[in-house]
Amino acid sequence: MTDAPTLDVVRRGEDEIVIVRALAAPRTLVYEAYTTPALLERWLGPRTWELATCDLDVRVGGAFRYEMHGPDGAVMTWSGTYREVDPPTRLVTTEVFDDDWTGGGTINTVDLTEHVVGGVVTTTVTTTVRYSSSAARDAALSTGMSAGMAEGYRRLDDLLAAMGGAS
Amino acid sequence: MAHSDRLDAAFAALADPTRRAIIARLTLGEASVTELARPFAMSQPAISKHLKVLERAGLVSRRRDAQRRPCRLNAPALRDATEWLDGYRQFWAESYERLDELLAELQSPADATDHHERGTDSGAENRAEEGAGS
Description:
The complex is a heterodimer of chains A (167) and B (134). With 167 residues, chain A is of the alpha+beta class. Chain A has helices at residues 27-35, 37-43, 134-145, 147-152, 154-162; strands spanning 8-12, 16-23, 50-56, 63-69, 75-86, 90-97, 106-117, 120-130. The longest helix of chain A has 12 residues, at 134-145. The relative contact order of chain A is 0.18. In chain B, 25% of the residues are buried.
């Protein structure tokens, strides 16, 4: 096995964050993984979180709602509407978290680009999250979405993990 | 201090290798400045300076009453930093790792029959062929 592909998280413009990740699969399959609750349950969120609710009405104007349950009774709920549904290349949604930690709703665009290199099919997922303001975007970044910071702090992961038992 | 400011201070403090080593040492238990300085080729005043940064960031506290003023970790502040690292970026990093596994499984030839059982779409047959051809 090779290492997991790089996850890029970058700012763009005034109010956007762009998340880019390559996946070793054709985009029809990736699109399916993004739009099928039975599949989303198996991948969306950290391993310690359970996707308890995943109601998707995948059509333009259709609503969706996600509820995740994490450790220590943590609950994260968000919902929204599909604005564009263009299988297998593009999904655009508006969404907002119930506790509104993003400071207003966001517009999320998922673009799937397929590449064939040496007979191997890969799909690049580019997620663009547009926040309601520059301040809201920067607040989201300060919660850990800054690639540069995360890169710099990567070494800390191990250290802090080793400290997990310290209390 | 606001939560994000506290995290900024914590991570700025932890950006230095000496300070990380001090934190690592303190996970083993309380220590005086003398004890902390021992493994480093540094003077006690230099170590004290690092400790002040860690204290200001809320990561380390020092008992005022005891004469040797031992330093100890402020576990809640460290936990905050850990939770931050487990936060938003980690959410996507881990989700995509899980998606890697799921996609690999969905594309394995042995799994082809499951696609028919799920009966999602005609793409299942295409994928089975792709799998067989690769």
